[in-house]
Every structure is written in C-alpha cells, then in structure tokens.
Amino acid sequence: MIAASGASLTGYTIGVTADRRRDELAGLLESNGARVVLAPALRIVPNADDGELRAATRDCLTTVPDIVLVTTGIGLRGWLEAADGWGLGEPLRVALARSYLVAKGSKARVALRAAGLREQWSPEGESYEEVIAHLSARRLAGMTVAMQLHGESQPEYTEALRSAGARVIEVPVYRWAPPIDPAPLYRLVDLIAGRLVDAVTFTSAPAVQALLRAAGDTLDPVLAALRTDVLAACTGPVTAAPLRSHQVPVVTPAKPRLTYLVRTLLDELPQRALSLQVAGHSLTLRGHAAVVDGELKPLAPGPMAVLRALATTPGRVLSRAALLRALPRGADEHAVEMAVARLRAGLGTTGVVQTVVKRGYRLPA
C-alpha cells in the first residue's frame, strides 16, 4: 500500500481546464500525488486575419499612444513577434517605451521586462475596474490609449475610456476558440455534477465561462457541487469573478502562478478531509480514497459514495434506500449490497462497516 501523507494530494482527483500550460500544471499536480482529469475549456489561436493587428500596429506607430494597456504576457509577446515579422518590431518597441505602460497582471509585467520595457503602473487586484479607475484619474480627454485585447473585445471598458474622452486603439493579437475535441470538457462537467472530482483549477475567466456554458441543462447541479463538495481553485480574483457571481466560494493563491496554485490545493484539500475513529481504527476520507490507520485505500466511485454517506452521519444506521440515493441514478438495492461488499473488501479491515439486521448499515464511530 502507498503511505498517505498529509502534505500531498494523494487520493484526490483534480480537473484541469487550462490549455496552453495544461501539461505543466498536470505535472505539478501529479508529482504531488493527485489524479488529474485534463479538460481544456478553450484554446488560444492567432487571429486568422492579421490585417486588424497590422492596422492597429501601424496606428500606434503613426500616433504614439499616450497610454498602452498590456493585459496578458502571451498577448504582448505575440504582438511583438508579429511586428518583427513585418519589420516593425523595433519601431514598435520604441513607441511602447515612449508610452505610459500599464501591466494588468504579473504575466504582463514579466513579458514587458523581458522585452526590455518597464511598466509605470500595475493594479494590485489585476482587475479592469482598477485599471479604468486609475486611467480615468489621469484626465483622458484628448489622449490615445492602446488596449491589447484579452482574446476578445471588452466593450464595457473601451466605452468607459471613450466616454472619458480618450481615443482607443484595440490591439487584437489572438482570440479564444472552443477546444478541438470538446468531449473531455463535457466529461469534466459530468464529473463535477456527480461530485467525482475533488477540485477544478481555472487559469482564466473565459475558461470558467466556457465550462459553465458547457454545463447546459446541468448548470444547477454543477454550481451546487462547486458550492459544496468540489473546490474551485483560480489563479486570481479576475479569473474567480464569474464563479463568485454565482455565489461559488473560490480559493486563490497568494501569487497568480501555477506553483502557488498547487500549494493552495496542498493546503486546502487535506483540511476538507473528514476524519473519524471507527471500531478502533482511524479513518479519513480523502478524495477517491480512504486512509485507514495511515494506509491509503483507493476506492471505486460506488463504494466511496456509500462510505461518504455513512461517514456524514457516523453511528447512525442508514437503510438501503437511503444509501441508494448516494449511488448513480439507475442503481437498485442490489447495487447497494454490492457497493457495501466492495467497500469492505477495499478497506481490508473488519468491523468498520457494520450491518444492522433488517435496518441497514452504519459506521460504529
């Protein structure tokens, strides 16, 4: 058996909705013992017609913007690479160096500095609202603001700038597109609704919105699971905003980096584990596994669902009909008996699941 560790993700199943850095995040999670479900919610693709980007670039060179808002690191890098391809890379860097540079987040800051540029300001909370408030305080009337778009237009913010008197140049470097194969995303939606994953990670607000759209008719069960049994972990407050608007509690790391996101899960998930003393044994429910006297015992979904139901009301007898409600739809009372038998075999310890004749089962806690 695998020795369970409190400072690991062993026993937990975690969904990953990122696309571009999914392998990096999955590797970090798996190295800490987690089982990973890869389900990219979106993918980033270059604009099919770079005419708009080239026109926006030439506009920035003709009239050097007073302010340039860099929203993403990948966006700035893509813009500079495209400009290099047109022979406009150096003039663009000169223009950017003459502008008041706003980096919306840490990745944008890193990209600016890697390009030999330096931001003049960056919002603490990485939100558009903070950026608009900061820029509006600079008296924008007559100024030109270049805004590197984050996958799609942000009309509510560009209009706020225009209403303050600014001329806005939208810089469309890339766009969001659905995943080439949406099946993994739909599978993750089903796993969330069935509470068969312990956490889901998000690295962008559009990915959150894409998953909620994919939920379709199952949106209410998905939100109910995310509000209770399935932990939502987001890289920052902007990413978390769509979930919080649905009253979903979210955890975010101290810094918007993948390593910090994994550390947050390492801190949070073990705290949610349910621990009991049952028939002289220590029992902890840990994701898709039970830990009995320090030994990790992986369990199938059916037996795990029965164990969770019994552990929620330790000492109380639950009938077969009550346990049936914990199993997937379509199961019958015979399935309950099979799940209990498999649970006992999986735990490998006698006396933990007790039969009460003609009444049902209980954990003698």
Account of the protein in words:
The protein is an alpha/beta fold and about 375 residues long. It folds into three domains: about 15-40 and about 180-270, Rossmann fold; about 45-175, Rossmann fold; about 275-360, Winged helix-like DNA-binding domain superfamily/Winged helix DNA-binding domain (Arc Repressor Mutant, subunit A, Orthogonal Bundle). It is about 45% helix and about 20% strand. It has helices at about 20-30, 50-60, 75-85, 90-100, 105-115, 130-135, 155-165, 185-195, 205-215, 220-225, 235-245, 260-270, 300-310, 320-325, 335-345, and strands at about 15, 35-40, 45, 65-70, 100-105, 145-150, 165-170, 175, 200, 230-235, 250, 275-280, 280-285, 290, 295-300, 355, 360. It has a five-stranded parallel beta sheet, sandwiched between helices. A four-stranded parallel beta sheet has the order 5-4-6-7, sandwiched between helices. Strands 12-13-14-15 form a four-stranded antiparallel beta sheet, sandwiched between helices. Residues about 1-5 have low confidence and may be disordered.
